[in-house]
TrEMBL record:
PANTHER family named in the record: MEMBRANE-BOUND LYTIC MUREIN TRANSGLYCOSYLASE C, SOLUBLE LYTIC MUREIN TRANSGLYCOSYLASE-RELATED
Similarity annotation: Belongs to the transglycosylase Slt family.
Ranges for domain DUF4124: 10-39
Gene Ontology BP terms: peptidoglycan metabolic process
Alphabetized Pfam families for the sequence: DUF4124 (PF13511), SLT (PF01464)
Signal peptide: 1-21
Descriptive protein name: Transglycosylase SLT domain-containing protein
Keywords: Signal
One CC-aspect GO term: membrane
Source species of the chain: Candidatus Dechloromonas phosphorivorans
Gene3D superfamilies on file: 1.10.530.10
Length: 257
C-alpha cells in the first residue's frame, strides 16, 4: 500500500500545476510511448490522475496485472537506459526523476526520434546544442550519428539541464520551459514561462511526469521531500509524443528545437 502521507504530498504538488492534473498514454506497436495531458483518442488510457486524494494509480491492481501507470515506470527502454540516466544524474547533479520526465516527454523513450527541426534522440538534443558542449563530427561519424548514441545523448541532455539550473537556480519550471523553448525565450519574457501553448503544455506535462518518477524513486520510498515546481497558471493543451515517421511528427518548440 502507498504511504498515505506521501501520497497526499504528491497529490498536492500535482494540484499546484493543475486542478485536473492527469497523464494519458499508450505504447504503439513499435514500442514508442505516447503521452498526453488529455484523452486524445480511444487509444489513450488514464495513467495518472491527481485531482483528488486516492486517485493516483501507481500500484498493481491486485489481479496480477500492472496498472496503466506502469507504462510510465516500466517501459523496457526506460529500464534499459536506467544505468545511463543514473550516471548522468550523478555526473551533472540533475535529479534522476527529472531526466526520466524529460526523456518521456521529448522522445517517448525512442532513441531514434528526430523532430522536424532536427532535434535528435532520447533527450531530443539539437546539433547546435551538442556543438556548444564540444561534441563535433569527425572522419568516422557525423554529429547526427553521435547524437543517436544513447549515452552521449543522455549526457548532453543532462548537461544542458544542469546549465539551465545554474541560469535559473531553484526554478525548475523555468528550466523545463527553457529546455523546450530556449533560455532566450524565457529571458525575453522577464524570466517567466513564455506564452506559447506548446511550451506551457510541455512544462505541465514534464512536471506531472517528474512527480510520478520522483514518487517511485528509492529516495521517495525513504521519505525524501518533494521539490515542487511553480504553477504557471496556463491552460493545458494536448502534447502527443509520436514516432518520427508518423503522419504527425514530434511537435517542435517555438525556438526551433
Amino acid at each position: 500500500m502507498l504511504n498515505s502521507k506521501l501520497l497526499m504530498t504528491l497529490l498536492l504538488c500535482l494540484a499546484a500545476t493543475s486542478s485536473q492534473a492527469a497523464i494519458y498514454g499508450y505504447v504503439d506497436e513499435q514500442g514508442v510511448a505516447h503521452f498526453s495531458a488529455e484523452k486524445s483518442d480511444a487509444r489513450y488510457q488514464l495513467l495518472v490522475r491527481g485531482n483528488r486524494f486516492g486517485s493516483l494509480e501507481l500500484e498493481p491492481s491486485g489481479r496480477g496485472r500492472p496498472p496503466p501507470s506502469a507504462r510510465l515506470t516500466e517501459h523496457p527502454n526506460l529500464k534499459a537506459y536506467e544505468p545511463l540516466l543514473k550516471g548522468a544524474s550523478m555526473e551533472f547533479g540533475v535529479e534522476l526523476a527529472l531526466l526520466k520526465a524529460v526523456m518521456a516527454a521529448e522522445s517517448g523513450f525512442n532513441p531514434d526520434a528526430i523532430s522536424p527541426k532536427g532535434a535528435i534522440g532520447l533527450m531530443q538534443v539539437m546539433p547546435s546544442t551538442a556543438e556548444r558542449f564540444g561534441l563535433l563530427a569527425d572522419k568516422n561519424k557525423t554529429l547526427e550519428q553521435k547524437l543517436r548514441d544513447p549515452k552521449t545523448n543522455i549526457r548532453l541532455g543532462a548537461r544542458y539541464l544542469a546549465d539551465l539550473f545554474r541560469l535559473f537556480p531553484e526554478q525548475q519550471n523555468l528550466v523545463i520551459a527553457s529546455y523546450n523553448a530556449g533560455e532566450g525565450a524565457v529571458q525575453q519574457y522577464k524570466n517567466d514561462i513564455p506564452p506559447y501553448p506548446e511550451t506551457r503544455n510541455y512544462v505541465q506535462l514534464v512536471t506531472q511526469l517528474y512527480y510520478v518518477y520522483q514518487f517511485r524513486s528509492p529516495a521517495r520510498k525513504h521519505g525524501a521531500a518533494v521539490i515542487g515546481a511553480s504553477s504557471n497558471g496556463a491552460k493545458r493543451v494536448r502534447l502527443t509524443i509520436r514516432p518520427p515517421d508518423s503522419a504527425v511528427a514530434l511537435q517542435s518548440p517555438p525556438s526551433g528545437r
